[in-house]
Amino acid sequence: MTFHGTADVVAAHPSDVRDGEVPFDFGEIFFSRTDDRGVIQAGNAVFRRVSGYEGSRLIGAPHRIVRHPLMPKAAFHLLWERLKAGRTTGVYVCNRALDGRAYWVFAVVVPVGEGFLSVRIKPGTAMFDRVRAVYAELLAAEAQGATPAEGAAELMRRLKAAGFPGYDSFQAQALAAELAHRAERAGFPAPALAPAVNSARAADRIAASIAPVRDMLRKALHIAINLRIVAGHLGSNGRALGAIADNYASLSRDLSGWIEHQSAAGAFAGIAGAAGENLFLKAATGLLDEMAETFARDAEAGLGDPAAERERLSAAAAIYRGRAQECNERAARMALDLEAQLAQMRHRINALDAIRMQCRVEGAATASAGGELDHIVAQLDRFQDEMGGRLTEIMSHGRDIQEAAAATDARLVPRPVAHALRI
């Protein structure tokens, strides 16, 4: 399969752009299918009407015929990089109608056969407003010489700063929000996505919690080092304090090593990825099903065969339903495994309470250490309290993922952690 890149995306000339937007309803849905070069092979009546082009001008034309200069090349760079990897992608897009007016859509682009199909809806959420503002900044940066790849990297940085571990998380949350907003505005039944949304959000919180845990463990190691220094100053009287310091240092290194190992293995990102993909695929499946149903009422399908287009849409929806179920199961399984391992972490940290009390006893018996030792003990107290609370919080998010998975699949009812896995 070949692909056109961002260099092939030709912006409309500024003189071809008019103020204002083309009106269309939240309940409407666009469809188009292109070959692997982005040349339009089929479309529906909504696409033709809103774009303003006759079918004879759309069919056989590159899809960039509707590209609006308000769109940063960075967004298309990211889109095509994902499509080249075979990944279904959701993206906010500003298109240009024949008369020069704009129309915004949230597009779900699906690799299919030797090309792509796309279903699109009208966006209207607060997330959409934020994306428009970011696009404007990326466009300004491109005018100053930023490359599409640089802009795409900046877009990813913005998403992470907004709390999304990656683009998969963003597109899932965005599509779910747009579908809920669309249902409200169009008077449609609300999409049955609440469990998947809850799971994706909980998984994102787990991913976001890892950096603070890593920082806390680094601080714990520094505390242990300072305690070892104090013990060294006390000579033979500090032998017990030195052992306590060594225990804390060993724990900190072990847990830090486990965190790094799990991160390198993709465990934390894997949970977020599975839960996010589950949400996105479920939401996308609903759109594909809706588009397949509307084809029965849309006699205009360009040069495409309406029955064949319906078949493509239904086939893609069936595949995504199966993949969503697999992602749901994987997220629940990974969350259960993580819960067991975090229980072991918390057990080891709680076991230090006895050592912490011993540190107080030794400190009381070693008056020469003075306030310095009191300060270190207070730091140890805070570390154990904060780390225990953080681990409990992450385990709660993992339990939320398991419960959300069970809400749509009774086989995935959460099980108690029978034993803690060895770290």
From TrEMBL:
Alphabetical list of InterPro entries matching this protein: PAS-like_dom_sf (IPR035965)
Residue ranges that the Swiss-Prot or TrEMBL entry lists as coiled coil: 328-355
SUPFAM superfamilies: PYP-like sensor domain (PAS domain)
Sorted UniProt keywords: Coiled coil, Plasmid
Coiled coil keyword on record: yes
Record-linked Gene3D superfamilies: PAS domain
Superkingdom classification of source: Bacteria
Protein name, per record: Glutathionylspermidine synthase
Species of provenance: Cereibacter sphaeroides (strain ATCC 17025 / ATH 2.4.3) (Rhodobacter sphaeroides)
